[in-house]
Amino acid sequence: MTKNYSASTTPITTEPYRGLKKDSFIEHKAPKINNIPRSLTVADAIAQMLEMLGIRNAFGVAGGAMASVWGALSNSEIQVLNFRHESGAAFAAAEAYFASNNPTVVFTTAGPGITNALTGLFAARGEGAKVIFLSACTSAAQRGKWAIQETSTNTLPSDGIFTSGTLFNYAITVESGAQLPQIFRKLALGLSQPGGFVAHLSVPTAIQTSLMDSIPQLGVAYPTLAPCEQAIAKSIELLSEGPFAIWVGFGARNAANEILEFAEKTGAAVMCSPRGKGIFPENHPQFVGVTGLGGHGSVMTYMQEQTPLRTLVLGTRLGEPTSFWSPAMVPSGGFVHVDCDPEVPGVAYPSSETYPVQSDIKAYLQALLKHLPQDFPASTALNLPRPEREAVQPAVNSLVRPEILMEAIQKVIVEGSDAVVMAECGNSFTWSTHLLSFADTNRYRVSTGVGAMGHAVTGVVGAAHARNGKAVAIVGDGAMLMNNEISTAVKYQIPAVWIVLNDSRYNMCHQGMKMLGMTGADATMPETDFVMIASAMGATGIRVERESDLEAVLSKAIASDIPFVIDVMIDPDRPAPSKGRNQGLAAQGVKQNLSEVKHISFPLV
């Protein structure tokens, strides 16, 4: 699908979520059962307050210690989805946020319920999602007595799990209903700020059923994060001194129109991080490619042959998956780096000149466009390098070549539907990032911060549910065996699609070890029939063994209104575009076999 590149003037809402009353919470009374009022419990109050915070969906696995909160959620306006594993619920909640722009809830019981969810919550924090985690914990009178699944300082560290820190932006144990007004003020303020917000409310079992009269009225402010006039003036001064490039990250996803308008007014070349694919149309003539893992060599060609004086960085941390910390990506004039987090600018390249701007990306670009002088020198660069499309090498056996699979996905799913496409970590990530092309924002999702296996295979359920439409996960057989939620999708008739790259290997590990010259490690696994697994769980499954069948099966999956698994028998020996990753490992001290075959992808120079 092609796009009209004239910049839209239609405003896009910058509200991080919907549903929160701007001025105050409305006082809520106790719920009724059969029109008979009953006492308001802390669990009821929490459910009602979550509704007022804009929560529409809760994902989790219940247990006895969580019974009262689980019941309150289930009898509220929030839709509760019961998952098979807590980590899958957390991944799904994160992707539901990105698909809907509404904050979400994860709920678990005590003990292992909490620890099982931590990886998914860690990913939610790293990805910038807005998620509230509700857990149960052991009541004060039972702590230290070895209660069932005891959750206290006797069994779990409190720092970082039950207190604010690196894992949670805000965390607290609710010991009294009197704490709720202040707790929800903090939640409302956290959710209203730009960027992610992951909070943990742990509610002791006995506190869940304690009584309250009502939910007090609670005022809520909407903080804004706009750039100061001096920052805009300095940005214009620096960017006018010579040609510059724009490096787009996932944090700029709400500013797609402004980025397009600014790029076309200035003629700047545009590149993006793997998570930023589609924010700037990849078929635009000013787009030079994706950087980092699975990225394009055309970016390095641009940096070497049409080197900009500076780079305007928008909403990316420039971490290893985005830049490999390559010095070749540092222009002589350094960076103008814009992010809502003041600790981000300069962290990846501490020795490079960086002008930091703390601001919401959309607000920054709107101010920049407003004050951009008429005589601002536009770039006159012609024939910018474009993302390469290497010729697909001939088949050496009857198995499906991943390159041909990606061509079919591009045609049927990317261009032929509006489905969200998610790629699991591993070779699924590199094949998809390198070969798929998006002209729309919010169509492609990968995790580069945590990169946990199982993120996409479970997150796809949350994304499809939240958008009430198709979401497609491109995953490896290893991830699919590790943690999938096909059964959950069947229960709620969620139209998720899994495309499994079945090669009986953890193939990024297998190929990576070979490229690094290491032998003896075993990354193989027995061949699995995912059609049988899908059928046993109540979903539809089709195995693809011939390239000629790909488009027909993909079309069936997109047309299906029930969960659908496509089991693709791929050639395991096709080298994935992961050169940059292996060179990055080598730069960190992992010995590399320099006689390796040439691999495509964003290089580390």
TrEMBL record:
Identify the keywords attached in UniProt to this record, alphabetized. Thiamine pyrophosphate
- Where the record annotates domain Thiamine pyrophosphate enzyme TPP-binding, the positions are 425-568
Instruction: Tell me yes or no: is tRNA-binding among this UniProt entry's keywords.
Output: no
* Pfam families on file: TPP_enzyme_C (PF02775), TPP_enzyme_M (PF00205), TPP_enzyme_N (PF02776)
Which InterPro entries does the record match to this protein?
A: DHS-like_NAD/FAD-binding_dom, POXB-like, THDP-binding, Thiamin_PyroP_enz_cen_dom, Thiamin_PyroP_enz_TPP-bd_dom, TPP_enzyme_TPP-bd
UniProt keyword Transferase present: no
Residue span, Thiamine pyrophosphate enzyme N-terminal TPP-binding domain: 41-151
One of the entry's Gene Ontology molecular-function terms is: catalytic activity
Q: Domain named Thiamine pyrophosphate enzyme central: which ranges? A: 245-368
- Coiled-coil-forming residues are none
UniProt xrefs under CDD domains:
TPP_enzymes (cd00568), TPP_PYR_POX_like (cd07035)
Q: Give the UniProt family note.
A: Belongs to the TPP enzyme family.
Protein name per the record: Scytonemin biosynthesis protein ScyA
Annotated organism of origin: Cyanomargarita calcarea GSE-NOS-MK-12-04C
